[in-house]
Design goal:
Blueprint (H helix, E strand, L loop, with lengths): L7 H27 L17 H7 L2 H34 L5 H9 L6 H14 L5 H26 L3 H9 L4 H29 L3 H6 L7 H11 L3 H24 L2 H4 L3
Helix pairs in contact: 1-11, 2-11, 3-6, 3-8, 3-10, 6-8, 7-8, 8-11
Length: 267
């Protein structure tokens, strides 16, 4: 690494990366700092240091319910997207599927379409289909917007697989399924893990789909946070946001512990 950064081009690249990191991280640092302020209104720089806002948030029954709803929906959507995305990516990569380019574009289209319009279209569809269970509707909507991330990362991982190892395994008597399980799967685990991380965070942090499909019983955390902003603007809002940031950090740390972050991202 040091050798690559020793030249002028490396220094410029490193400086640009650090600048981008600062620009991206600065708003998060401000939010976290506000959550420890002793004042009863949000202002920066914060005054003093207290954990009372976290205590207030964690004692809020509605916040805890919304947090659990978001985590459960994110886990459910990620699991369902994995079960659908893995076979879809494998079929598109390994089989001569008629119109495969069209199918691939269709599967990735939720990444391109405005998510607010997608949520409105889903609301209209569920209303006409008389599907009134908000929990199921939210799960279906979140699967729709997370599936492209699993399909994309798994497809890229499959394209990088050394197929000669699969052929060698089948030559030695392994069935295609066993060769996939024992030879291919270990090679694509990093891609699967990265896709699951993206899917979980996209679902957990989603507002547009949740706004259209949620109800009083199923209110995901981003919707609850937005509604809270309309009522109050004290450091408890920053505390809620900080807990969301912490959830994302824990997800990344968990990925690092399981498969290694750099390996999962393919770097």
């Amino acid at each position: 690494m040091s050798g690559r950064l020793s030249g002028g081009g490396g220094f410029i690249t490193y400086s640009a990366a650090m600048l981008i990191l600062v620009v991206v991280a600065a708003p998060l640092v401000v939010v976290v700092a506000l959550s420890f302020s002793e004042l009863t209104f949000a202002t920066f720089p914060p005054k003093g240091f207290t954990l009372v806002w976290y205590e207030k948030v964690l004692q809020d029954v509605d916040f805890r319910r919304s947090f659990v709803v978001s985590v459960c929906i994110a886990l459910g959507a990620t699991s369902a997207a994995l079960m659908l995305g893995l076979p879809a990516a494998y079929a598109l990569d390994r089989w001569d599927v008629p119109g495969s380019a069209t199918v691939r574009t269709f599967l990735l289209s939720p990444m391109i379409l405005p998510i607010l319009i997608t949520g409105l279209a889903l609301l209209k569809f569920f209303s006409q289909a008389k599907m009134r269970d908000a929990g199921i509707n939210l799960l279906v909507g979140h699967v729709l917007i997370t599936l492209p991330y699993l399909v994309r990362t798994i497809t890229v991982s499959l394209e990088l697989v050394d197929r000669t190892l699969e052929e060698a395994a089948m030559t030695l008597g392994a069935s295609p399924f066993r060769a996939f399980l024992k030879v291919t799967t270990p090679q694509i685990v990093p891609g699967i893990a990265a896709g699951c991380l993206f899917a979980f965070m996209i679902s957990f942090d989603d507002y547009p789909i949740s706004m259209w499909l949620g109800d009083a019983e199923y209110t995901p955390l981003p919707v609850y946070l937005h509604d809270s902003l309309n009522r109050i603007f004290d450091p408890s809002i920053a505390a809620m946001s900080s807990l969301m940031i912490l959830t994302g950090v824990l997800a990344v740390v968990g990925l690092e512990k399981i498969v290694g972050l750099r390996r999962a991202m393919g770097v």
